[in-house]
Amino acid sequence: MMPSFKMWITLVAGAFAIIHASSIEYTVLTRSLAQDALIEEGISEEIVSLPSNPSTECGIWLAPSTIPGAGLGMYAGRDFRKGDLLQEYGDVVIPIIDIESHAREYSPEKWNFLWDEYTWDAESLQMDHEGFGHVNVASPGFGAAANSFLGIFNVEEYSPMPYDETASLHRSKDPGLGGFSMYGNRLSVAKRDISAGQEFFVSYGENWFETRPQMKTVPLFKDLKRANQLFRSFRKLIQVDKEQGIPEEMAKELWDVFIRNNKFDGSRILGAFHHDDPNELEILKKMSLQSLRKLQSTRSLEWIEEHGTCGDHLKAGPSELAQAGRGAFASRFLPVDTVVAHVPLIHISDRGRLNMYQLETRSKQLRPSRSKGLLGQQILLNYCYGHGESTLLLCPYGPMVNYINHNATKANVRLRWADPQRGNHMPELLERSLEELDTNATAKLAFELVALRDIQAGEEIYLDYGEEWEQAWHGHLVKWQQQVKDHRDDLGNYTSARQLNADKRSRLYTEFDQIESPRYPANVEIKCEKLFLDNDDWEEFAANNTIDDYLRSHRDELLPCEIMRVERIDGQLRYTVVMKEPDPDDDSLLINHLEEHLPRQAIRFVDKPYTSDIFLTNAFRHDIRIPNEMFPQAWRNAIQTER
Ligand SMILES: *[C@@H]1O[C@H](CO)[C@@H](O)[C@H](O)[C@H]1NC(C)=O
Ligand SMILES: *[C@@H]1O[C@H](CO)[C@@H](O)[C@H](O)[C@H]1NC(C)=O
Ligand SMILES: *[C@@H]1O[C@H](CO)[C@@H](O)[C@H](O)[C@H]1NC(C)=O
Ligand SMILES: *[C@@H]1O[C@H](CO)[C@@H](O)[C@H](O)[C@H]1NC(C)=O
């Protein structure tokens, strides 16, 4: 997806003559933008639709994006109404914790990490407390595989849901805990009506584009609308002049000179036009720029079926394997040989990049230190595919595939390299070295998962992760039993934030209750939902008991907070808290806000950095193994990595 935007821009920016036309451009711009106040939201609600007859039930497709050079995209296979969930259970999200600090210890050379182009900032997903510095979030499916076109974005993504099903798992008795991400069910919702064949666009946020210099002419939320106004002003200008006898060809020439062939350096409004399209002027007489872009981001279902792979054959749910967390299940009957999922991959050519080191305090800050020894590996490792003779890891970012668990005897799908006609796989890379893979920082490899036999709707999907994985798992179980025996007391006494959050009824302790002795374990902190700061909207939802739904769709970041008072109001416990918000002018200062009578939902326990189960030194870590016969000779750079 994103690196590819570069190419889109190159296309758009394929400027011809550089003409300095500032005076006229200025006239046109000021005319059209004087009514800025009229632009409330840049996105029109008009629906653009191609006639379509879905031949399968598939609601989500992965296929080449309509944005030139943007690689893979996601498409609607049927109509969705505004507010519809696009998947009934959201995807897993995987925290990547302080990776730059750890990776610098591992190898101080120039930092490149392809995942950086595909991750989300942890704060808005309420996962930043896991690390001491910078936590990023890998969010497969809509979070990573869908492209972003802010002017016509149509998919809203919620925060991951707290993983309540696992509240009963505990580190003193469950060897699987710490081996999978505790964050998931990140739901995607139709932001507006979406018709079959339209490409899905999520919002990466304006900041994502603003911080990438190569994207300085990519239109943001309101720029399509502004460009459309610019066009209409231009038309008006021409019409005035036409009465005085200016012919249509001259109007076209004016447009070409001042808009289409303009260098438009740094203008997102001029960047909103397709400068390589000589017919755009004619088309814009008949429809708005927004409608045109929607139409251009729509493919026929026949095209999508020919060039894509269904992206919702799988759905997630609690696995039948007790220690595996969630699993993937067939959402419909899948006959033998069906491509159950397309598996686009992000490569990490040196798996040592996922090493994490023990922490030490240096100049009052926590820092990883290689000399103190290895702490473990990022939890991301467990979601990536690798091979014993190579340092390469290939990590999937397509919908739902990260939920698939291992079982050699029950395996009902197998792996193969993807069909290059569908999506984003370049088979010639299988013959090149890993260094070459790295010189070109975009995702260009993909697997697909194929049904080994008929799979019934609702059956859990299993893949054989390979013999080395299975041996490592059994080795883990034995070692784990011994370690737990040796540390039974401290393990048994451990209480996670997850357990505390699962108890929704008990009255919480205030700061005053805790003066004599703390009532909560030292490994948790109390935070408050920023959503409840200066905002009473929740009261309407409290009235009909739907605060949880309100939170799910509006969740913001968490702020440090202190509980000052508890009262019972109309039979409900209500809390008075002090929320501490970083001062926008000085990050090191906190502004205190007193908020009265908040519901329990406003308060969350979080684990302190490096204390949650994924940091257990005895948590399982192993990559999924790629079958030997599939793995290219050219990538076998580390014959001795395995003991
Ligand atoms: C795979 O499934 C079989 C049959 O249910 C079970 O006995 C076995 O323990 C499973 N293997 C793993 C590694 O979970
Ligand atoms: C990078 O990959 C693209 C195809 O995706 C190819 O056209 C281009 O030549 C490659 N660039 C380099 C430097 O290898
Ligand atoms: C764990 O709890 C038990 C019983 O409550 C107590 O005797 C023991 O000292 C505690 N251990 C630790 C390490 O806190
Ligand atoms: C509950 O109230 C909110 C706010 O008035 C409203 O938007 C929502 O639809 C209501 N939900 C139910 C289930 O009644």
UniProtKB/TrEMBL annotation:
Recorded superkingdom: Eukaryota
Stored InterPro entries: SET_dom, SET_dom_sf
SUPFAM superfamilies in the record: SET domain (SSF82199)
Pfam family, one: SET
This protein's record includes keyword Transit peptide: no
TM spans (from-to): none
Protein name, per record: SET domain-containing protein
Species per Swiss-Prot/TrEMBL record: Fistulifera solaris (Oleaginous diatom)
